[in-house]
Amino acid sequence: MTIVIIEDEKPAARLLQRKVQQLGYLTTKLLHSVEEALEWFSNNAHPDLIFLDIQLSDGLSFEIFDKIEIKSAIIFTTAYESYALRAFKLNSIDYLLKPIDEEELAVAIAKFKTRLEQKESLSLNFEQIKSMFSTQEKVFKTRFTVKIGAHLKIINSDEIECFYSENKGTYIHTLDNRDYLIDCTLEVLETELDPRKFYRISRKFIVPLNALKEIVVYSNSRLKIILPTYKADDVIVSREKVTDFKNWIS
User: Fold this and answer.
1) Are residues 170 and 214 in the same domain?
2) Which of 61, 88, 124, 208 has the largest CB neighbor count within 10 A?
3) DSSP letters along 51-73, please?
4) pLDDT tens digits for range 89-137
5) Which structural domain, as residue segments, surrounds residue 227?
6) Is 14 in the same domain as 117?
7) What is the pLDDT of residues 64-96, one digit of tens each?
8) What is the share, in percent, of the chain residues with pLDDT greater than 90?
9) Are residues 234 and 153 in the same domain?
10) Are residues 243 and 194 in the same domain?
């Protein structure tokens, strides 16, 4: 089975690739834009399955299908809210809501394999779906699911004091002074969080507006943020982001 991932956020594409590989499948190609996808599909055999992000850096991914007839099966990866996703079911299209859950990924691939074995064809109404997404605003992630032993815990965005990276891991620190490891990078989180409520102040931290207890002038024209409970490290706004950060909190 051949698989292509079309996703403009390279960390998100690599993360999905790793999850697909953990299920025992190899990814043929990672593509990151409409232009790159058009060039690749024009010169290569089309895969059995495409994981397709809706909005790429240079336009909606549906533009690919306006110019090239692609008969591959498609699993959409999207951050749009559920009511819009009902259109996928009407068109017999599978979808995965970001951040992609491993179990849901396995179920989607299994569904595709069943259709492949039964030689079912998918009739995709791209014009209908495109018209929906051209009028919908992006919906941002408002809750996270973390594993605690054999249990799952849901953390709402208003419970989060900060996200931080440490020893190649990414963590949520909550307002009740607890830390939870999550399977996501800060790069991917930047694309999934509402930029009106969350800001990446440095390579190590993303902070929410509602958790800023104090902001203090720091050395080298930087700013130091005091959070309610996080004390493990200094939370510093990097110098190159200070001006933008001030605009964000204004």
Assistant:
1) yes
2) 61
3) EEESEETTEETHHHHHHS---SE
4) 544 457 787 778 888 899 889 888 887 776 655 555 566 566 655 555 5
5) 143-249
6) yes
7) 888 888 878 888 887 665 545 554 554 445 778
8) 50
9) yes
10) yes
